[in-house]
Amino acid sequence: MPNEFSRLRVRPLTEEASCWRLFQPVNAPAEIHSSLMASTHDGIHGKLALVAEDDRTVRNLVVRLLCRSGMRVLAAEDGAEALALARCCGTAVDLLITDYEMPRLNGGDLASELRTLFPDIRIMIMSGVAQSTINASDTLFLQKPFSPTALIDHVHSLLS
After folding, report:
1. How far, in Å, CA of 74 to CA of 140, rounded?
2. Kindly report the CA angle at 99 between 40 and 158, in degrees rounded to 5?
3. Which of 22, 83, 117, 130 has a 20 to 30 Å separation from 91 between CA atoms?
């Protein structure tokens, strides 16, 4: 099972196909393993999350933590790509985790678009700017930088 120490490499083959390789270490630190494993048997296991984040390091961290918690995850580097993924994934997205400030389509506009596609979607906006400057109702806000535990706790509160 992927975890926060895994590496995922994607190599495009054609416009419609890619080669995915998952590299995993033999062992992860016990304290991280035990804290994240606790979440694999609750209300988030098997749910589909869409992560939209233009910072590759943050995006990869969030994806790894969600996968480690038993979620299925789609990831995009901006709002426009996330919207396209959501439209073609073939199933309802349960959770959007998005950066607020991104190129092409910001997190607030992405959230609005996805609410029309998936009325029951839960939304978490993460940002380094103050929450008071973000005008987004019916969302949970996560201030950057955040800890892995804070992210998973926010996901639990939205989906459980």
Report:
1. 19
2. 40
3. 22
Decide if pLDDT at 131 tops 60.
Answer: no
Helix (H, G, I), strand (E, B) or coil at 2: coil
29-159 maps to which CATH number?
3.40.50.2300
| Alpha carbons 116 and 132: distance in angstroms, whole number | 25
Indicate if the pLDDT at residue 31 is higher than 50: no
Report which of residues 39 and 57 the model is more confident about. 57
The answer to whether 57 and 102 have CB atoms below 8 angstroms apart is no
Question: Given pLDDT bands bounded at 50, 70 and 90, which one contains residue 57?
Answer: very high
- pTM, 2 dp: 0.73
Domain boundaries, the chain: 29-159
Three-state DSSP class for 87? helix
| The residue type at 42 | D
State the Cα–Cα distance between residues 55 and 79, nearest whole angstrom.
Answer: 12
Residue with tokens 């918690």: 69
